[in-house]
Amino acid sequence: MIRRCLRYITIATFTSACLAGIAGADNGRGLIGEPLAYDFGCVGIDFDVFHVYSLINRGDVAVHIESVQPSCDCSSVIFTDSTLAPGDTATFRLQFNTKDYYGKMSRHVLVKSNDKRQPELEMYYFATVGQWMYRVKPEPASLFFLPGQPVKTVTLNNFDIDNLTIAEIDVADDFIMVEPVTKTANKGGSIQLKVTPQADLVAGTYKTNFRVSLDVPGAEQRLMISIPVKIVKY
Predict the structure, then answer these.
(1) 101-111 confidence digits (pLDDT tens)
(2) What's the pLDDT at 14?
(3) How far is CA 169 from CA 49, 178, 182, 197, 204, in A?
(4) Domain span including residue 23
(5) Which of 105, 129, 153 is the last residue in one of the domains?
(6) Domain containing 150 — which CATH number?
(7) In the structure, what pLDDT confidence band is assigned to residue 18 with cuts at 50, 70 and 90?
(8) pLDDT above 60: residue 27
């Protein structure tokens, strides 16, 4: 069954409201999260995408983190620490599966701790699933590497925008490298990205993704596209 999240409320509006509420409670001390919200942007249906969040103890006493729990069964987290001394940082890796979604969606991860200032901290993630803004759809929409396939290319065809330009590339894990072959595309042109897995990966299956942020002339926000990557090594 397809879940239509938030009745297509805009991600920009929802993100601003979430961050304003959290920022109002942040006095610079105790446990804080970075980033408080992450937007995967446009992504295909039935894929896993990932992001690493940080938890930082800005207070002057140790903070015990009791749990890090996603708000739905579409997601899971891997948490690496439970007690943070003052100044310490811990990370958790979010895995979100897009299978049961279509359109704009919003979910959060709830961090519970003994921080007296803010014992419950919500950290958000957003995506636009199965829809491609401005008709900019990656070809292919995901990458699958088998042994003997050292490099693959992703193409972003630009049908409608006068000048589409890469602003940033955010790679979820360091076992892939993403390089732009072309950074800009006029209307009718295309942007190409070269994706290379690390050569020294040991045998196993690796899943990750990267997000491309693109400047669109006249648009208030960047166009963001996430591309899942799966690597199999024998």
Answers:
(1) 999 999 999 99
(2) 46
(3) 15, 8, 13, 16, 25
(4) 5-129
(5) 129
(6) 2.60.40.10
(7) low
(8) no
